[in-house]
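Q: Give me a backbone?
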Amino acid sequence: MEKFVSSFLKKPPHNLPLAEVLLVENGSTDATLDACKRLQHRFPQYIKVCTIERASYGEAIRHGILQSRGTHLSILECDCLSAEFVQQSVELFQTQKAQFIVASKRHPDAIDRRPWKRRLLTYLYNQLLWLLLRYPGTDTHGLKSMETSLGKQLCDLAVTTDEIFQTEIVLLAWRLGVKVDELPLSISESRPAPVRIAARVPKVLHTISELRRSLARFSDEAPTLRTTTVS
């Protein structure tokens, strides 16, 4: 993590005034928190360390969104800190008034060098989202950018937790009438997946059920979301 974060901050997105970089440590049992504090000491003008007790990826994302102070935010992975994605997101915010952006591994122009099993799982999962929920996007996991005000409202509306949360906020934005833009992602596996693929498969149907329950609340009359755009 120290290697990736240091490299990102030494070559930040071109001409982008970063307001902050939030590192959300979520219940780690190794020396991750110590590494976060060392990074904060090296880059005090940027880095703020947040901690939550629960080892939940979704709750870490939620906490980061709620703590964010900028007008816009990007959710990045410690081993996929893509300055290019952040820069492209800013351009979409400025030129197309985008509100919610997903970095898609299934985009026609994406380059996905992960093992074939992980690529297959991504494909099948998003096919299920289309077949069962009619979500037209190609990906919901991973890197995202959004208006901070919109992100906070989605956190208030979300009912799921853990890894499913990152998919729920994408689907909620879509269901509530927010255009979800996609950018192609170039990705390779720099570390083994923290959760085995075989352990994920049995959870998929339960995940879809939870997402359907969340979206069903807005099937008749969706509320109007308050948003701000870049002028």
Notes: The chain has one domain: 2-216. Residues 116-133 form the longest helix (18 residues). Residues 226-231 have pLDDT under 50 and may be disordered.
